[in-house]
Specification:
The chain has 678 residues and is α+β, with helices and mostly antiparallel strands. Helices cover 56% and strands 8% of the residues. It contains 24 helices and eleven strands. Strands 1, 2, 3, 5, 6 and 9 form a six-stranded mixed β-sheet that branches. The longest helix is centred in the middle third of the chain and has 36 residues, at 349-384. The chain is globular and about 90 Å long. The two termini are 40 Å apart. 44% of the residues are buried. It binds (2E)-Hexenoyl-CoA (TC6) and flavin-adenine dinucleotide. One of its GO terms (molecular function) is FAD binding.
């Protein structure tokens, strides 16, 4: 009984601490929530959908997934994923709320969808890549043939591109699709072990179909990687199709273990000619190849997914920083002043330095991802009308923001874990799972270093064009060399002056890299070797350019937001923190280019400390404004009421090892050892 009384005193203290934080709020929280949701109506809609799904007992887990076997874990997540589709298909209210067609995809990828299927959704690839591939790469007839069945879940697909030997270098894929005009079929074949498809999500056991990327051969010529629809499993029995294709799961991974990532091999597997997705390029019955307007159009599905990943990174970081910030308001440790009560760890400036820039980063990713999404829609809209002019810009923007958001989010989640001390290492904090999910995005859909180099390629090309006097696209127009008179240090350090300083720092970095590249070529290196010898510097150009892009979008997003002065105030402080944090962390770039002076840096470092102090009272209110339901956070450390210690103990008690006082393993292994010498 004494223990219970003591425990509830602790609970009362924790709850009191977090409640006191909420009283400090300086802004109307619903406005920040609405900014992030895209309007108050969207907030209401999201909450309603969450309520409809979270109140459904089918989405509850009988035990923590970590305690299940590999197979049971997969089955449990598949059960929930299928129930999610069933619920969507059979409930008109949900369909209206989420939107008839796109809705189910949005739902699966939303914070809610990701939280319901905790360790990876076996149907994710179906919605995120298989359907978009058919939409983006199929003709109207092909869409008619496949889309309806795919939306309802009659067929389940994946996107099988990566092979054991090649992921990054698409032109190096080895799977072949050779056209046979006699039977009007393509013959799919994996000529070597390294041609085995490896990694596609859902390929192991879930998918009945796949979009397979293979080298297209016709009339004796190879035309590069193209997308083909391939049936993998029998429509009634779900058995593998005997002999000609062989699929399976690749085994346990760092995380996302219920995505049944798979392998696939073909042995002269025949598919009809019409299974080549022919929106951009065609093979006629006699084997004649019709070229696309641009041979990178076959890579379109990846462009879409790279943009989608930015939103995912945003949501994962939101969850992690909510957990770590709430916990930091409840956790008390050490003495700030000897003899005085232990402070909340959020009082330590170093803790604020870990968390507040991450709260700002959530907004930075939000505003820039929205902007890239708008660009994606504009560019794909004009591509429908045959105008491909802005495709290179979209490619560079989507590569840059995918790389920046995934690395910021993964680094940020790890910082949040560290900010929770030992308890952040517990599965029940949910930080390990959020981390393993987030860090995967650094690798998939284009490994980040490789994507940085794609951005650099665009920057150098643009810079060279600017030097020839050509006009550049808006996102890189600042690379145009400026007259010397415009390069004086800023007269003030306003937000706009700092964004301008970013522009100057990137321009300088790009000009230096271009000069070094040229020097290599002038010294007799072939361009590719010169490029490789500068690639560390080139990747850096891409990173700073993309950071500049996020700063610019953050600032314009805050300026344009239709909110009260109090909300604009807190968002402006966050934006300022984001700018100052990244500038003071990368001083070399700004000092070398003369964009800022050492005196400016001192002033900004002083301001950084002041910003942390100014934002400290709004830390918990800001993460509260992310409006993440406790079930979606799924964390003993991050729960709304702050009752952390009770939840931790409650979760620990559920461990299967705690169900028996003496485990069977004691009798089997430990006892013989302990009693060996008796
Ligand atoms: C939930 C998610 C689950 C995960 C799923 C997956 O991972 S699925 C698997 C995901 N896998 C991956 O993501 C694989 C990552 N790898 C790749 O995407 C490509 O192989 C590559 C881009 C690295 C190089 O490709 P390459 O060797 O063929 O090309 P290159 O370097 O010789 O450049 C030639 C020109 O093409 C341009 N261009 C390139 N891409 C695009 C595009 N999409 N659009 C428009 N343009 C593009 C480029 O800018 C350049 O233009 P320039 O300068 O000549 O005017
Ligand atoms: C969780 C997860 C899910 C996935 N899901 C899918 C899926 O559904 N479908 C699918 O097809 N694939 C999938 N993949 C595969 C993924 O797309 C590839 O792993 C990714 O594109 C990287 O390719 P890679 O593995 O060949 O790495 P590699 O290219 O071998 O990278 C290894 C190292 O080499 C470096 N490197 C390689 N090329 C260059 C270069 N040109 N310049 C400089 N450095 C270079 C990289 O930077 C990296 O450091 C998934 C992967 C993971 C981890």
């Amino acid at each position: 009984m004494a223990r219970v009384v003591e425990a509830s005193a602790v609970a009362r203290r924790c709850v009191a601490d977090i409640t006191a934080e909420r009283a400090k709020c300086s802004f109307p929280q619903h406005e920040v929530t609405a900014v992030l949701d895209g309007g108050e109506d969207k907030t209401q809609q999201r909450r309603k959908i969450e309520e409809l799904f979270l109140s459904d007992p089918e989405f509850l887990d009988a035990v923590r997934p970590e305690y299940l076997s590999h197979e049971d874990r997969y089955a449990n997540e598949l059960r929930k994923a299928c129930h999610m589709i069933g619920k969507f298909n059979n409930d008109e209210e949900i369909q209206q709320l989420v939107g008839q067609m796109e809705g189910i995809r949005t739902l699966m990828g939303s914070g809610l969808g990701v939280a319901l299927t905790k360790d990876g959704n076996p149907l994710a690839l179906h919605f995120v890549m298989f359907l978009p591939a058919i939409m983006g790469q199929g003709t109207v007839e092909q869409q008619g043939e496949w889309m309806g069945r795919a939306w309802t879940g009659e067929i389940i697909g994946t996107y099988a591109q990566t092979e054991l030997g090649h992921g990054t270098f698409l032109r190096g894929l080895e799977t072949t699709a050779t056209y046979d005009p006699a039977s009007q079929e393509f013959v799919l074949h994996s000529p070597t072990i390294t041609a085995t498809k490896w990694w596609p999500g859902g390929l192991g056991k879930t998918a009945s179909h796949a979009v397979v990327m293979a080298q297209l051969y016709t009339q004796g010529q190879c035309h590069g990687p193209h997308p083909f629809i391939v049936q993998l499993r029998h429509q009634d029995t779900h058995c593998s199709l005997p002999g000609e294709s062989h699929a399976g799961e690749i085994g346990p991974r760092l995380g996302m273990n219920t995505n049944d990532n798979g392998f696939l091999r073909f042995t002269h597997h025949r598919i009809p000619r019409t299974h080549l997705l022919m929106k951009h390029s065609q093979v006629l019955e006699d084997g004649t190849y019709i070229k696309p307007h641009n041979n990178k159009l076959a890579y379109g599905t990846m462009v879409f997914v790279r943009v989608a990943i930015c939103f995912d990174a945003y949501r994962q970081l939101q969850r992690a920083v909510t957990i770590a910030t709430r916990y930091s308001a409840v956790r008390r440790q050490s003495e700030l002043v000897p003899g005085q009560p232990e402070p909340q760890i959020l009082e330590y400036q170093t803790q604020q330095y870990k968390l507040l820039p991450l709260i700002a980063t959530v907004f930075g990713i939000h505003f820039s991802a929205r902007s890239v999404w708008d660009t994606y829609n504009e560019v794909t809209g004009s591509m429908q009308e045959g105008n491909l002019d802005r495709l290179p810009e979209l490619h560079a923007l989507s590569c840059g923001l995918k790389a920046l958001s995934s690395s910021d989010a993964a680094g940020g989640v790890e910082t949040c874990r560290l900010a929770c001390g030992g308890h952040g290492y517990l599965a029940s904090s949910n930080l390990p799972r959020i981390y393993t999910t987030t860090t995967a995005a650094i690798t998939y859909e284009g490994e980040n270093t490789v994507l940085w180099l794609q951005v650099a390629r665009y920057l150098i090309k643009s810079y060279r064009e600017a030097c020839k006097g050509h006009t550049l696209r808006q996102s890189v127009s600042y690379l145009t060399p400026q007259p010397a008179s415009s390069s004086a240090s800023p007269s003030n350090l306003s937000n706009h002056a700092l964004v301008k300083a970013f522009r100057r720092a990137v321009s300088h970095l790009v000009a230096e890299a271009a000069a070094r590249l040229q020097k290599g070529c002038d010294a007799g290196m072939i361009f590719e070797h010169a490029w490789n010898s500068c690639s560390v510097q080139l990747a850096r150009c891409a990173q700073v350019h993309t950071r500049y892009f996020t700063c610019e979008k953050f600032l314009s997003g805050v300026e344009r937001a239709e909110v009260s002065e109090a909300t604009r105030g807190v968002l402006t402080r966050l934006c300022r923190l984001y700018l100052v944090f990244h500038i003071t962390n990368n001083q070399g770039d700004f000092l070398r280019s003369g964009a800022l002076s050492p005196q400016d840096m001192s002033a900004l470092e002083g301001e950084l400390a002041a910003l942390l102090a100014a934002l400290r009272p709004d830390a918990v209110p800001l993460v509260d404004a992310f409006d993440i339901h406790d079930r979606i956070l799924d964390s003993t450390l991050g729960c709304w009421d702050g009752n952390v210690y009770h939840r931790m103990v409650e979760e620990a008690e559920k461990s299967p090892l705690n169900q028996k006082d003496v485990p069977d393993a004691y009798h089997k292994y430990l006892r013989p050892l302990m009693k060996a010498n008796l």
